[in-house]
Structures are given as C-alpha cells and as structure tokens.
Amino acid sequence: MSDRRLDYIELLRQEVSRNPHRLLDVEKEEEQEEAPPPRRTLQALCSIPRRLAISAGLGGTPVTPQLIESLRRILLGGNFRVFDYEWRRAFFHFREPNSELAYALKADGGGARAIQMVVQARIIKHLLFARQSDSDGQTLHSLTEIGRREQDRALAAALSDSLWLAGQEASATVTLVTEDYCITSHLDYKLDTFTERLQLFTFSEKDAITSFILDHIQCFQEEGSHGVILFLYSLICSRTIERLRQDLDSPTSYLLHLSPGSSVCRQSLLNLLLTGRASPHLFNGTRHFGQDGLPLQRPLQGVLSRSDVGYLRWSREEMERGALPQVGSMLKTPRFPVWVCSINSSCSVLFSATRSLLSDWRAEHLFQLYYYSGQSSQTATARLTVGERHTSAGLTGIRSCFIRHLFPVSCTDTHSHHWEASSRDREGDPEKRFPSLEMTIRTKWDGAAIDWNGASPFY
Questions:
Q1: What global pTM score does this model have?
Q2: How many CB atoms sit inside 10 A of residue 56's CB?
Q3: Are the CB atoms for 281 and 130 separated by under 8 Å?
Q4: Is the pLDDT of residue 22 over 50?
Q5: What is the CA radius of gyration of the chain?
C-alpha cells in the first residue's frame, strides 16, 4: 500500500477520534437517501374523502385487473374511457327530512339522473307500501313524515332491491372503495384513482345486503362518495359479466351511450335496474322472428317478468316521426303503482298511493297521481287528477292529433277526444297544447282526462 494511501487512512482515523458522533450522522443520512419515497396519501390520489373509504380489514375480495377491464368494456365500451365529472359527482342525496319533499332525491341532470330516478321509484315503493300492511291507507302526507334515519333505511332498501333482483334473488354483491390500491396501471388501461380501489362483498341473503348497505350508507349518499357509480358497479357485479352478455342482443353492446356532454343510460341498463335483466327492448318476452317473418340470427330479448315498479316512455320527437316504441304490459302494469317515466329522454317518477289502482278496474274511474321530476326547482309534489279512460282513444288517435296540429290544412282525422278540446284553448306551443307528462300518462290510460289542480304543466 502506498505512503499516500496510508496517510489518508490515518487522517480518517484522527477525524473519527476527534468526532465520534459524525459517523453515526453519516449513516443516518445514507439510510434516508436509500429509503423508499413516502407513500402517497389517499387525498392526493383519489377525490373520495378519507372518511368514505373503508379499511381493507373489513374483509371482502379485492377487485382484479380482469374485472376492472370487464367493467369498463360493459359500461363504456373500452378500457381508456372513464366516467366524466357529472357521473363522478353524482350520489344519492335526499331533500330535507320532515319536509314536503322528505322522500325525494335531488337529481338535477347528467347521465346519472336515470339511475337516481329508478332508485327514487323504489324508495317511494318502500315508503308507501312496505312499511305498513294497509297500503291503501297511505297518503302523500305519510311521505313527508320522514326523518333522517328513515331516509337512510329507505335508500338501503331501494338499493338492495335492485341488487337482489340482478343476482336472480340468490345473491348480490356490494362494491365499496378501500384506502389502498388493489391494482396498478398498465399500458392497456387508464387509471381513474377510484375503480382500482374497489372491494367486493357478496351476500346470499337479502336482509344481510340491506343491513350492510345501511351500515355503510354514507358511501352512497355523501358528497364526494361517487355513490351512483358505486351502486352501478355493485349492480353489474351482482348480475355478473357473463349473464349480462347473455342478456344483451350483441356481444359488443355496452350499457352507457356516449352523447355530447355526458354518458347516458341505454334501455338495457334501465331494464336491468327495473327487472334484474339487461334486456335491450321494451316488449314482453323474446322475439325469434323479424318483421319480415324470417327467423332472426340472434333472438331479441324483451322483458320476461312483471316488475315491482313500472316504466312509461314518451318522446315528442319520436311521436312526430312515428317511431315511439311500445312499452309492454310487464313494465306498464307493475306490482306497485309507481312508474319511472322517460319523457323526452328525461327521467322522473309518477306514482299513486292506492295500490288497488292496478288490481281493481273500478279504481280507474277517477284517481290521483303524484309526480316528482327530481329537479331542485320543484318545491312540492305535483298532484294530478285522472278521469276515466276512453277506449276509443289510443296512440293512433293521439298521433293523428299531432299530425293535425303539424299539418292543419292537409290532414284530417275522424277521431274526437275530450282532452283535445281543452288543448285548443291553450297557446300554439306544442308543449302547452299537449303537455308531455299528460301524453306519457295516456300511453297507460288511453284518452284520460287530466287535471293539474291549478298547477302549470311541466315535466
């Protein structure tokens, strides 16, 4: 060893003897440099508040990369598509408890509104017909006497209803968000800092599902929870990807339609929420033959069973084109007098407090219907009085009335409807002459006379 090398080692020994604590400080600095960077917090990675993320110790099954890709494809059509801002901010938020709209959810707009309104229909069904045996004794007033805890119970019951149906009344899955990532990003997938944290909880008893959701109700109804997306993931996992592909007409179909500004629910998703099956069509049963009488290469799936809550659909644009789809009796006549209404592509809820309306024809002579649009601008439940229907009127007569309105000179019609007479007194605006909600009601009660009881028509 050279003299220069020995001199250097001797200098080091002298330095250590003079500063014995210096070596320990250097070792600490080296340890800090080699330590991995601090773990990024949930706050930095995900917009969901920490209080709404569950602990991994709660149990359940972590989401897998394969399931995440399947969820993206069946919902949005691809792994690189993610939910937009309106979807991510959507949750199940009630109006003030013990108020005139205590039963009602807020659902102002966006593609998630359709899901919120189906849940709203099930909430109304629960509050009106599940809490007491004497269902016909309930009134609209009973929906205003709802406290915070009763709101929570009603929401939990409504969510579990749809999940249990989707799982064929044998099992259901609830998805919640954990504090930790279950998967990391790869080249074929776009992270959204939300889906990658899913934890799945599967139950074989409906009461257990309802109880679990109630225990974690804040994960669906607080701001920042992504509550509607969580429920949607739960719905798909309850149905399973395999059964969903069997429900749909095409193996490449998906449940959300990308439209300007947002993603909107396809009919198959609405049917999944209402009936437990993602059938793409509104007619009853399965069609094996086309309009030309020839066998179809793949049968068209309709609605196979009567739903708990119903569905009505009307569109002014479709009516004027003569392309309004017919809703089958399985959806038009549900077990309970509550209907989700798709009116000009906007969802709302129509309901009656009289359950016998669907089983006693005498109740149809004169009855009350109540309407809630979900919009914050509505401050009270609308009450409509519906008169006895007239079988001579129907969609053909309604459409001919539209044709006469659009082409008053060139078209004539031999049908006469009492509700047309009152419409002539209104202004020329088609919505004022033929309010869309009234037209929707008449798809169920042909030719009905409808009184708004002093309120201005809206939908």
A1: 0.82
A2: 14
A3: no
A4: no
A5: 29
